[in-house]
Amino acid sequence: MTNQERYRRTFSQVHSAAKVRWEDYQGKGRGRPRGAAWAVAVAVTALLLMGVAAAAIAFTTQRLPATFPNLTRYSAEIYGVEPFQVSIRLPEGCTLSTDFLDPEHARAGWSPVELQMDGRAVGVMDYNIFELYPDGPAIHEPGFYRMVYNQLMLSAQGNWDNDYTVVSQTGVSENAVTKIATVENYGNGRSDGPVRYSPGVLAYNTELLVYVNISLADGAFTGDQIADMAASITLSR
After folding, report:
1. Domain map of the chain by residue range?
2. What is the rounded distance in angstroms from the CA atom of residue 207 to the CA atom of residue 196?
3. How far apart are CA 210 and CA 85, in angstroms?
4. Dist. CA 190–CA 184, nearest whole Å
5. pTM of the prediction?
6. Is 137 helix (H, G, I), strand (E, B) or coil?
7. How far apart are CA 177 and CA 214, in angstroms?
8. Edge-to-edge strands of the sheet including 210-216?
């Protein structure tokens, strides 16, 4: 067969001499979606599934200072900070509240806000201010976070400098997870009792010169949930 014959044979299969009628195609192909329709259906299903997954995480904001339980002339500078906003993604069912379920949380820190879930207190968020020093370490350098959180890191009771792990950072901020070491029976004439560790979250902003610290009840959240909460935090005005 010559090339010309091959061409004619192939061309005749594509361009039939028979009359093509629209009626012959109506109703055909309804047993399965066509390629484009199938792709759209898959995309819509994927978006719906993503929406269900996103619904499992709530996004909330909290303005600080929110409470003033320890306002004195010595703490006036801390409470006098220009109000700022904390944005955070919380696991499903978790909320922030100043209607405290745990009375101790109402007096803990400068402006405590309680994390609540399933009718119980599962943590408390607080804030503080800090300073930058010309001769101090630069942001993200070793030791910088200790300068920011010096009161928390140097505390003998409730020490936050344990397995400090950065989960997100920008040019002016850093978010991390850590462990809070609490000495049992501390203050009863001894400081060498058994040490208990609980999860903690930290986030600072060098433009606002404020940080937030969140102590969490041990076992209330998974490690992934804690890391996600920490990474999601932004501080702004």
Report:
1. 57-236
2. 34
3. 11
4. 9
5. 0.74
6. coil
7. 9
8. 94-97, 113-117, 120-129, 210-216, 195-205, 173-183, 165-169
Is residue 141 within 8 A of residue 91, CB to CB? The reply is no
In SS3 terms, 174-230 reads as EEEEEEEEEECCCCCCCCCCCEEEEEEEEEEECCCCEEEEEEECCCCCCHHHHHHHH
Give the C-alpha separation, 134 to 149, whole Å.
17
Question: How many of the other CB atoms lie within 10 Å of CB of 121?
Answer: 18
Q: How far is CA 139 from CA 102, 129, 147, 148, 200, in A?
A: 36, 16, 10, 10, 21
pLDDT per residue as tens, the chain (237 positions): 544 444 344 334 434 444 444 444 344 444 444 555 545 454 444 444 444 444 445 579 999 999 999 999 899 999 999 999 999 999 999 999 999 999 999 988 999 999 999 999 999 999 999 999 999 999 999 999 999 999 999 987 889 999 999 999 999 999 999 999 998 776 665 666 788 999 999 999 999 999 999 999 999 999 999 999 999 999 999
CATH code of the domain made up of 57-236 = 3.40.1000
- Residue listed under structure tokens 């929110």: 66
| Helix %, strand %, coil % of the chain (to 5) | 25, 30, 40
DSSP string, 88-130: EEEETTEEEESS-SSGGGGGSSSS-EEEEETTEEEEEEEEEE-
